[in-house]
């Protein structure tokens, strides 16, 4: 079958994966917008959230191995999302307190933040490998995964629909939070000019902590959604993390809507490219997009900072 025959199926699959990239990318964008730093340990927040959601959902599954349905499936997904988000938020809060806050108080150079983030990332990866094992951990089926409907001939499965719908709901929720709430005004104020924000009565330390936690909540929930499709492992954060960073750069690092757009576009490019060339080239395509964007338009497609976005 030719590319045009598979176009809509590739689009559906690409948008599903791209929505996950977008959810993870928002953590990079939020922290960069507020601190002007890249949180390279964010991928491990995503990984820890996936295990939190996975173990919570597995603990509530029926003991006979049957696949739940209806309200039971909804409850399991909701519990998994909540536990994943909670673990991600806790991991992000701990990361900020341990790896970043002491450096801010000492006015450390930016290189120190990078080294601290890499150290925290390595610690989290090896801790997860020790506690959860170094093999893939699968998540049993939480619902019957059949075709719900067809879009221009492309099959949209229950799993695809759940992942895409939840991811889009989180993206829209964050956009509304940043654009239309008092907390969002504080985040945008600190992103635009932290010194002036302090003079206007904004608690910058509180905003920084909230920014990390919100990014962690999204990454943790996204990790659970990712584990529903690809399973979980102690090293699972690296590749999705780099791709999410690519998505953030593609849309415009520091721009919430740019991260959303970048994630969806990257998912589509990967899906189309994997079909036109080989599936094994998907990672190469993603990293090629990152290099091309940095060379051609380093400010990204939208190119606005968080303080001026929304």
UniProtKB/TrEMBL annotation:
It is found in: Cell membrane. It comes from the Bacteria. The keyword S-adenosyl-L-methionine does not apply. Keywords: Amino-acid transport, Cell inner membrane, Cell membrane, Membrane, Transmembrane, Transmembrane helix, Transport. InterPro entries: ABC_transp_permease (IPR001851), BCAA_transport_permease (IPR052157). GO terms for cellular component: plasma membrane. The keyword Transmembrane helix applies. It is a multi-pass membrane protein. One of its GO terms (biological process) is L-isoleucine import across plasma membrane. Pfam families: BPD_transp_2. The chain crosses the membrane at residues 20-38, 45-61, 73-95, 107-128, 148-174, 207-228, 284-303. GO terms for molecular function: L-isoleucine transmembrane transporter activity; L-leucine transmembrane transporter activity; L-phenylalanine transmembrane transporter activity; L-valine transmembrane transporter activity. PANTHER family: BRANCHED-CHAIN AMINO ACID TRANSPORT SYSTEM PERMEASE PROTEIN LIVH, HIGH-AFFINITY BRANCHED-CHAIN AMINO ACID TRANSPORT SYSTEM PERMEASE PROTEIN LIVH. Belongs to the binding-protein-dependent transport system permease family. LivHM subfamily. This is High-affinity branched-chain amino acid transport system permease protein BraD. The lineage of its organism: Bacteria, Bacillati, Actinomycetota, Actinomycetes, Frankiales. The gene is braD.
């Amino acid at each position: 079958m030719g590319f045009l025959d598979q176009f809509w199926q590739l689009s559906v699959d690409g948008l599903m994966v791209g929505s996950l990239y977008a959810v993870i990318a928002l953590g990079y964008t939020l922290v960069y917008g507020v601190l002007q730093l890249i949180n390279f340990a964010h991928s491990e927040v995503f990984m820890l959230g996936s295990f939190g959601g996975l173990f919570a959902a597995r603990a509530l599954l029926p003991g006979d191995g049957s696949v739940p349905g209806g309200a039971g499936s909804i409850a399991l997904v909701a519990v998994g999302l909540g536990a994943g988000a909670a673990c991600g938020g806790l991991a992000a809060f701990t990361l900020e307190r341990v790896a970043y806050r002491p450096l801010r108080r000492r006015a450390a150079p930016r290189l120190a933040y990078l080294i601290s983030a890499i150290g925290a990332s390595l610690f989290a990866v090896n801790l997860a490998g020790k506690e959860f094992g170094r093999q893939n951990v699968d998540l049993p089926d939480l619902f019957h995964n059949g075709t719900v409907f067809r879009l221009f001939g492309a099959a949209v499965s229950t799993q695809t629909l759940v992942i895409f719908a939840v991811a889009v709901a989180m993206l829209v929720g964050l956009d509304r939070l940043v654009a239309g709430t008092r907390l969002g005004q504080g985040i945008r104020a600190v992103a635009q000019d932290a010194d002036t924000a302090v003079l206007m009565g904004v608690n910058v330390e509180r905003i920084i902590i909230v920014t990390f936690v919100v990014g962690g909540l999204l990454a943790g929930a996204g990790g659970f959604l990712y584990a529903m499709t690809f399973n979980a492992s102690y090293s699972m954060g690296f590749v999705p993390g780099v791709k999410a960073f690519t998505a953030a750069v593609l849309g415009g690092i520091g721009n919430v809507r740019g991260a959303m757009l970048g994630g969806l576009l990257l998912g589509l490019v990967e899906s189309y490219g994997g079909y036109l060339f080989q599936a094994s080239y998907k990672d190469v395509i993603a990293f090629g997009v990152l290099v091309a964007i940095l060379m051609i338009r380093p400010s990204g497609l939208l190119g606005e900072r968080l303080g001026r976005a929304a």
